[in-house]
Design a protein that fits this description.
Strand content: over 45%
Helix content: under 10%
Low-confidence stretches: 1-20, 142-153, 164-183
Distance between the termini: 55 Å
Shape: globular
Number of strands: 11
Largest sheet: 8 strands, antiparallel
Length: 183
C-alpha cells in the first residue's frame, strides 16, 4: 500500500499516528511503554503494548518478561490467550500437559484452562494477545514457599489493557482477589 507523507506523522517519541476511520491508532515503540511488575509472579514484568487506549476495540497485546529464577504460578483466566515467544525458554504447563516453549514457539491457552510458567533460559519474553472482555483470574494452588501476591484490581485492569477500574463501571476482571499469602 502506498502512503503519502500526509498519512503518517513521526514524533520524537517514535510514535506514528495512522488515520483509521475516525480513530487515531498509534504505532508504539516498546521502549516508550513502562514495564510493570506482576504481583503474583516471581521476577515477572509486563507492559500493554496495544489496548483500548490505543483504539483496539477487540484485543490487547501484552509483552511479558520473566527473569532468571522467575515464574508465574498455576492460574486460570476467563479469556483465551494467544502467545508468541520472542526469546528464552520456559516450562509451560497448560492443563495437565507440560511443554518447553522457546523463541519462535506459539502457544494457545483456552479460556478456563490452568496454566503456569517456570523459566529455563532467561529472560523468557513473550507476546500475549487477549480479547478486551472482562477477565477473571483465579489461582489453582500455591507452591510451598510461594511469596507472590494475587494481583489487585488495578493490576488486573492494567493487565487487561484498561486504564483503571472505576466503581461506576467495575468489570468482573477488576474485582479484587483476596491474597492467600498475606505478608
Amino acid at each position: 500500500m502506498d502512503r503519502s507523507a500526509e498519512d503518517t506523522q513521526s514524533t520524537p517519541e517514535h510514535t506514528q499516528q495512522i488515520e483509521t476511520g475516525s480513530r487515531q491508532t498509534p504505532l508504539r515503540a516498546q521502549s516508550q511503554v513502562p514495564l510493570q511488575s506482576v504481583a503474583a509472579g516471581r521476577a515477572t514484568q509486563f507492559q500493554v503494548l496495544i489496548g483500548p487506549e490505543q483504539g483496539s476495540e477487540h484485543f490487547s497485546m501484552r509483552r511479558f518478561v520473566i527473569g532468571a529464577g522467575g515464574s508465574i504460578p498455576l492460574h486460570r483466566n476467563r479469556v483465551e490467550h494467544v502467545q508468541y515467544v520472542l526469546r528464552g525458554s520456559a516450562n509451560v504447563q497448560i492443563g495437565e500437559n507440560r511443554y518447553t516453549a522457546e523463541a519462535g514457539s506459539a502457544l494457545f491457552i483456552p479460556a478456563g484452562i490452568a496454566h503456569a510458567y517456570e523459566v529455563l533460559d532467561a529472560p523468557y519474553e513473550f507476546l500475549c494477545t487477549v480479547p478486551n472482555t472482562a477477565d477473571e483470574l483465579s489461582f489453582v494452588h500455591e507452591e510451598p514457599g510461594e511469596t507472590g501476591q494475587v494481583p489487585n484490581r488495578q493490576e488486573l485492569a492494567a493487565m487487561n489493557g484498561e486504564e483503571s477500574c472505576k466503581p461506576e463501571g467495575l468489570r468482573a476482571g477488576c474485582e479484587q482477589q483476596p491474597s492467600r499469602n498475606p505478608r
